[in-house]
Design goal:
About 25% of the residues lie in helices and about 25% in strands. By secondary structure, it is of the alpha+beta class. The chain has a single domain, classed as 3-Layer(aba) Sandwich (Glutaredoxin). Strands 2-1-5-4-3-8-9 form a seven-stranded mixed beta sheet. The chain has a two-stranded antiparallel sheet with strand order 6-7. β1 and β2 form a beta hairpin. About 35% of the residues are buried.
Length: about 170
């Protein structure tokens, strides 16, 4: 189970990445800061807004030295069909999206809504030492702000004391 300040759980899963089926694991991100975000299901209304939001900021995350990984409990084939739908995704989604059909990744981070077999809208920020630095979980109906996740990453990486609404380049408190 993931907790802030503890080592992130080890995981391994199939993912959709660049239209291909690939195997990913936590070992692939060893020594790298990374954001893992969960969404409930493909072919829903809120999920594409979040995925497009993370994709739109992908360059900024990478400029910070941070990789982004999406996760849902849908299959690779569901992801493949969904990401090919040009009405939903006019631009290609270039970050990997895990197909957590076994629910192992979602359970390891304790973000699975067991009674429905889907993940909550959750976000974990893991540092280059494999430590969970931030973990947030929303109910299924409420989307998150990828810009706030990026701001949180920047604050964590800054090493300073960051007040509410701190932004990269702002003075630290204390």
């Amino acid at each position: 189970m993931a907790r802030v300040g503890t080592q992130a759980p080890e995981w391994c899963a199939t993912a959709h990445h660049g239209g291909q089926e690939v195997q990913l694991s936590s070992a692939d991100y060893r020594g790298k800061w990374h954001v893992i975000y969960w969404y409930p299901l493909d072919f829903t209304f809120v999920c594409p807004t979040e995925i497009r939001g993370f994709q739109a900021l992908l360059g900024e995350f990478r400029a910070e030295g941070v990789e982004v990984i999406g996760v849902s409990t849908d299959s690779f084939f569901s992801h493949q069909q969904w990401f090919a739908d040009r009405k939903t995704f006019a631009d290609e989604i270039t970050h990997p999206v895990v197909a957590d059909t076994s629910h192992a990744v979602s359970r390891a981070f304790d973000v699975l809504k067991e009674d429905q077999g889907v993940a909550y809208r959750a976000t974990a920020i893991v540092d280059d030492q494999g430590v969970v630095r931030s973990l947030s979980v929303n109910d299924l109906s409420v989307g998150r702000s990828p810009a706030e996740v990026l701001r949180t990453v920047q604050a964590l990486k800054s090493g300073g004391l960051c007040a509410a609404d701190w932004n990269k380049g702002d003075a630290f408190v204390g």
